[in-house]
C-alpha cells in the first residue's frame, strides 16, 4: 500500500490488547469486583425473578486445592452464571465438610509424629485441634476458589461444624429415631483396624491385593446320605484367619458334587492318599492343581440337594472349637471359584451373617477393634489378624486342617485414608433401616423423578439403592456430630422422647456438639427420667450423614442471609463417585425425614486423568496444580479447558491439552479484539434496520438466532460442552474464516456512509453484545475486560447482564439454505486459489479471476450478489456448464469445479488492492476508493 493512501483506510483500532496477560489482569478484575461488591449485586439484581438454586456439595476442609476442586467449582459456576444470564435468581452458598476421618486422621498423624497416643489426649482438646485445622483450610480454600472466578455468597458460607449445623444434624438423627428408622443392631460392617472404626462404602477404595488363600477340610460327622460317610467337605477362602469364626458351610442345591480319593500326590502336597474329599465336579481339576493332587479315583456323584442334613466338625476340633458345623443350602454358593462350598463366618461377612441368623446359629465376637483376637479365642488369643497373618496360617496348617495354600491377586477393599486393607467385623452399630417407613421404595421413586445428566447415572444410583443394606451411621471416632441418644440399661433400647431430643439439640445450637463429651448430659434427661437408668451413646455420626443433612440447615434455614433459599434444590453437581456418597446420603436423609429427595436434578462429572489416560497419583507425579496453571495462563484458560471436554466422562489434562486450551482462548480473544477494533467510533446513529441490510448481514442475524436457541437449550440442559463448541465454531468458521474475511474489504475501504459498511458495523455491534454475554459464564474475566472497554460505568459489569434478546424475525431458513450453497461454492474456489498460491502462480487471491462451474440452481444463488467479493477475488466468471476434467474440485462436492489460473485484467488499485480495468491514469485507485477519499476529505473539512 502506497503511504499516502494508508491514512484513508479505516483499519480497526482498539486498546483491547492482543495478549490477555491474564495472570496480571485477572487479580485486578477480582479487586474491582470486590470493590463494587459484585457478588452481592448479582444476588439482588434478579431478586424478584424465578429462582435457580444449586446446593453446594461440601468439599472436605483438609487440604489444598487440586484440579478436581477446580473442575467441580468451575462447573458449578457455569451452572449458576448461565442461569443468571437466562434471567434466573441465583444464590450460591459455598460450604465445607468439617467432621470425620479426613481431618481427624490429619490431627492424629500430627500427634503420632510427636510420639503421643491420640487416645491419651483429652477429647475436647482433640476436637478443638480438628476445628482449628478445618477453619484454617476453609479460609485458604475460600480465597483460592474465588481466584477461579467463582461467584458466590463467600461471606455467608456454611460449614458442618457450625453450632447451628451440628444442632440440625442432631435433629435429623432425632427424626430418624422418632420415626423408627434408627435402630441399634449387630451386623458385620466394613472395619478399619488401623483407624479403629466402621467405614461406609463411600470411604472405601479397591486396590489390587495379594491374598494368601487356603483350602480347609471339614470332616463329616453326621449325614443322611451314605455317599458322604467318612468324607471331608473342602472349602476355599481368601481370608484364612476367619476360619476361627466358622459356624456353617453353604452349598448349592443344583451343583453337581463329586467324592474323590487321592491316589497320587506331589511330594510337598498337604493332601493325603486315601482320604475322601468332596468338591464341585466343575472345579475338581482346579482344586487338584492347587492341592498338588496328581491322580484321584472318583467314588460318587451327588446333587447339592442330596447334602441336606449333613453336619461336619470344625477343622480345629479338639483345640477349643468343639461345635457342630451344619451344611446349609444358599443361593450365593456357586461354581465361579473355590470348591462349590462356601465357608460361613457370620462375624465376617454379610451373607454369612444373614444365613446364620436365619438358621439360629451363633454369631461370635472374636476380634477387637484393633484387629487383635480377644483373650477368649482358643489358640489365637492376642494375635493381630494383619500383622500375624502368616503365623496364624502356619498354626492352622500344623493342626492339620489345611489341604492347600496358594495366592491370589484380586481387588480388595482399602481405606482411602490410611491406605490399609479392611475387614468385615461384626459389631454393635447404629443403622438406618432401608425398609422401615418404606425408605427404599421412596428413594427409588424419587430417583425416577430426578433429572440426571448424563442420563446413564440414573441407572447407577438406582442400582445402588436397590441393593444397598441398611445404612450404618455410627463411627467409633472423636471428631464428628455425636449420635445424641440415650439407651436403657435394662433393655438396651434407645429412648425415644422428642422433648429430650429438643433439649439436646437446643443445647448443641448454643454451645456446640462438644458438650456431649464435656458436660454431664444426663441432666438433659431430667425431670422425666432417672439418669441412673440410662447409658449415653458415645459414637459419632458417619460424616456422610453430616453432608447428607446440609439441605436441612442451608436450604431450609431461618438464617436471614439465606432466606431466599428453598428445598428441593434445582441442581446437585458433583463427581461420579458421589452416587455412593453425597447424592446417595442426601437422598436417604431427605426421603427418610421429609418423604422426598432434596434435589430435582443431578449433574455428574467424571474423574481426572493425565493426558495419557493414567489416573493422577503421587507415585506417578502426574498431578497438576490449578493455581500453577492460573499463574502461568490464567483462570479463563482453565475454565475453557473444563468446557472444551465432555465433562460427563472422565477428563484428561496435561501440558499439551492445556496448550490447546490456550489456543482456543487466543482465537476467542482475537474475535473480540477484531470486533472492538471494527467498532472504533461506532455510534447508534450509524445503525440500520435488518430489512435494509444486505443478504450477508441478514444471514449473520439468522445464525445469531440459531446460536441463541442453542445457548438457551444448553443452559437448560446444563450442556456447557456443546455451548462452548457452538460458540467456538461460530467464531472461527462463520465469523473469522467467512464473514470477517468477506467484509474486511468493506470495513477498510468503503465510505463511512456506505450502506454495506454501516450494515456490517451494525452487525458487529450486535455480535459484540451477543458474544460477550454468551462467553461471560465461561471466560468470566475476558468477557468483563471486553465489555468494560465499551461500557465503563462505575458498576457496569457484564455479569449484571442477561443473554441478549434475539428477535424471532431474524430467523430466515430460506436465506440460510441459499448461503449454505454459496459457502459450498466458496470452499471449492478457496481450495483452488490456495493451490495456485502454493504453486507461486499468484501471491494474493485478488490477482485471480477464476471461472467457477456449478449447477444452475447453485449459480442462481449468486443472483444480485458480488461473487468476486465473496471469493475475495478481483473478478470471477460463474458458469452453469460442466467444468473441464482438469478443473479443481473437492471429493465431497463433485459437481462444483473451479479454474483458478486466469488472472484479473486491469491495474491494481493502490488503496484496496483489487485489480480492475477502471484503474487508469495518474491516480491508480478505483472509483470506489476515489469516492471514499473524497467523502473523507469533505467530511474532515
Give a written overview of the molecule.
The chain is of the alpha/beta class and 941 residues long. The chain has 4 domains: 37-150 and 433-477 and 509-605, HUPs (Rossmann fold, 3-Layer(aba) Sandwich); 212-364 and 389-408, Isoleucyl-tRNA Synthetase, domain 2 (Alpha-Beta Complex), CATH 3.90.740; 648-811, Isoleucyl-tRNA Synthetase, Domain 1 (Orthogonal Bundle), CATH 1.10.730.20; 827-905, hypothetical protein PF0899 fold. It contains 28 helices and 34 strands. The strands form 10 sheets. Strands 8, 9, 10, 11, 12, 13, 14, 15, 16 and 17 form a 10-stranded mixed β-sheet that branches. A 4-stranded parallel β-sheet has the order 2-25-26-19, sandwiched between helices. A hairpin with a 2-residue loop joins β31 and β32. α4 crosses α19, α19 packs across α22 and α20 packs antiparallel against α23 (755-775). The protein is elongated. The mean pLDDT is 92.
Distance between the termini: 25 Å
Number of domains: 4
Helix-and-strand structural type: alpha/beta
Average pLDDT over all residues: 92
Q: Hey, roughly how much beta strand do the residues contain?
A: 15-25%
Radius of gyration: 38 Å
Return the CATH class of the largest domain. Answer: Alpha Beta
Helix proportion: 25-40%
Catalytic activity: tRNA(Ile) + L-isoleucine + ATP = L-isoleucyl-tRNA(Ile) + AMP + diphosphate
Domain Methionyl/Valyl/Leucyl/Isoleucyl-tRNA synthetase anticodon-binding: 697-847
Subcellular location: Cytoplasm
Binding site for L-isoleucyl-5'-AMP: 574
